[in-house]
Specification:
Structural class: mainly alpha
Distance between the termini: 40 Å
Strand content: under 5%
Shape: globular
Number of helices: 8
Oligomer: single chain
Number of domains: 1
Length: 124
């Protein structure tokens, strides 16, 4: 059993300030497209991904395989994050005293651009 079998948290992906999203929207969308392609590569091309893990982190093949098997479930399938996972993370941060007051998910995560990129890709 892995931690991801018991509880899920949002895995960190690309982030951008509201100003960057407003002023450089096309660049942010390109980053999201690259994220989606990378996630697809990781899931669909396991052998190549394991080889990259082995090479980049200088691990033998067996350890790289175990690392892949352990961590692949943590990655989003489509660059989206689950709002419930974000809520859990906010609650933990609040409990630890790192934040105060109520923080809505919409202030932390906005999937509008991810949705837009996915619609564009579906229309191709």
């Amino acid at each position: 059993m892995k931690a991801s079998d018991v509880v899920r948290f949002p895995f960190v992906g690309p982030s951008a300030s509201l100003e960057k999203i407003k002023n450089q929207r096309d660049q942010v969308k390109r980053l999201i497209r690259a994220e989606i392609e990378a996630l697809r590569f990781i899931r669909e091309r396991k052998e190549e991904t394991v080889a990259l893990i082995s090479k980049i982190f200088r691990l033998d093949e067996a350890v790289a395989q175990k690392s892949y098997d352990f961590s692949v479930s943590f990655f989003s399938k489509d660059a989206r994050i689950d709002p419930e996972e974000v809520k859990r993370l906010i609650a933990l941060e609040k409990e630890a005293g790192d934040i105060s007051g109520g923080i809505p998910v919409s202030r932390v995560a906005d999937l509008a651009l991810v949705d837009e990129v996915q619609r564009e890709q579906a229309g191709r």
